[in-house]
Amino acid sequence: MLNPLRRTSLGFRAAVCAALLAAVAAVAQQPIPTPVAPVPPAIRAAKKIFVSNAGADSGLFPSPFSGDPNRGYSQLYTGLKATGQYELVADPSDADLVLELQLTAPNGPTNGSKINGASDPVPMFRLVVYDRRTHYVLWVFTQSIEIALLQKTHDRNFDEALTAILLEFEELSGKAAH
């Protein structure tokens, strides 16, 4: 049989160990702050933009999306022009940045079907931002387009994905509407 003093000492040690374990667990669960990497200055300083149409994978027009393969390019161009934040130029040599938009469909267009229990890959926009002077890629944005059953829903999802990628670019460039 343990003497009362030793029993108290064991209880105290157990309580301290439990408190230390809880503190260690709490610290371990705290997210480690991720340092914020700088945005390339050319993106923030850009005033003139050339929009490049990298096209769309075959099989996406006229179904599941209405229009033609230039639809995304036209909408991005119009959206950038509507912001009034940039001068859109007709020659890439006159631009600060070149934005290259492509609509891809990994492994072909999707119709929402399932193959071997997995959904087909969904179409996505890929917007590459190049520094015109150096021709280096400065940033890449991707935005998936949700699949749908109805043509009008496909088209709405197309529009929403393109708007989202435009807003991401504006936010990064510091020229988002407030």
How does this structure look, described?
Helix 3 (71-83) packs across helix 4 (151-173). This protein has helices at 4-29, 41-45, 71-83, 151-173, and strands at residues 48-56, 87-88, 97-104, 114-115, 118-119, 124-131, 137-144. Mean pLDDT is 84; it is low at 112-118. It is an alpha/beta fold and 178 residues long. It is built from four helices and seven strands, in the order H-H-E-H-E-E-E-E-E-E-H. It has a five-stranded mixed beta sheet with strand order 2-1-3-6-7, with helices on one face. The N and C termini lie far apart (74 Å). Helix 3 links the parallel strand 1 (48-56) and strand 2. It is flat and about 80 Å long. It has one domain (42-173): Putative neuraminyllactose-binding hemagglutinin homolog like domain (Double Stranded RNA Binding Domain), CATH 3.30.160.180. The longest helix has 26 residues, at 4-29. Helices cover 38% and strands 22% of the residues.
Structure in a nutshell:
With 178 residues, the protein is α/β, with parallel strands linked by helices.
Written as H for each helix and E for each strand, in order along the chain, the element string is HHEHEEEEEEH
Number of domains: 1
**In one word, what is the shape?**
flat
Which class do the helix and strand fractions yield?
A: alpha/beta
Q: Using only CA atoms, what is the Rg? A: 26 Å
Q: Mind telling me which CATH architecture this is? A: 2-Layer Sandwich
CATH homologous superfamily caption: Putative neuraminyllactose-binding hemagglutinin homolog like domain
Low-confidence stretches: 112-118
The rounded distance between the terminal residues' Cα atoms is 74 Å
Kindly state the number of beta strands.
7
The CATH topology? Double Stranded RNA Binding Domain
Q: How helical, in percent, are the residues?
A: 25-40%
Mean pLDDT level: 84
Number of H/I helices: 4
In the CATH scheme, the class would be Alpha Beta
